[in-house]
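ingest -> validate -> predict -> emit
validate: passed (alphabet ok, no gaps, 275 aa)
predict: started
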Amino acid sequence: MFDEIIKNLVVIKQNFAKNYTGNAHIQEVIPTNTSKQFNIDESHLELLHNFAQKNPIYFNTFEEKINDILCTIYEGDINQYWLNSIKHGSSCQPFYPTWIMSAYIMASIANNLGYKELVDIGSGDGRIAFCGKILGLTTHSIEIDDVLVELQKTIAQDTNQNFNPHCADALEFNYSNIQLTNPVFFIGGLPQMGGDILATRIIDKINSITNLKKNTGIVFAGTNSRKELSQNLTNGGWNSLIDKHNLSVIDTVFLPTVWTFDQMVETPYIYTKFN
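emit:
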């Protein structure tokens, strides 16, 4: 199911990027309606549009047919939030979001793998946690930047979807307090930008909670760009950490993100679990 949706989303992104003539700082595409190519829950799709409509980073929308599929284009500007997000000493990556449709696919895969809770580390505007919430997962959105957390709270209130934003340093957060039983952690940072340090500390936190490790998954955002990563590109640059902590790769998906909009390759997301 997801393979077909992912393939169609990537084709739409690449066609749209090739022909885009606007000058917005960021832009992304959400299918306007469900269809054979995007066979997802209609109420979920409506909520994805609602997230974008209630999110102040987007200032313009228009519809366009791409590959004969009617799509809604959301144009936005994240400069204000990007600048604010880099001021924190332990921040691993400036605010650059994945696409909303990509976030929904990622949360859907986690849901299908049987996880009960979703913890998004370095969650930006909370889109992955939002998607987990509408899919029925118990979500926690951990973000160090107070301005982004206020943005999350505004979106949560305006969409009537409380995905539990926490304004906290993920390295110091007490995960025992949120009573996790079968969680998946999404790590919001590329390995070469300090994400490896963040991931190591999160794994240490998981190891410190009795019996949690055997029921926990971790999803890493990787890169296929040698320009961005001089080390081994296997598993999106995460291979050494995966080997070091005895993780098994259970799935890898390649999805559009803001930072790969002008590239022909997508961002790899690597789903792992502890052996």
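Residues 79-274 form a domain with the Rossmann fold fold (CATH 3.40.50.150).
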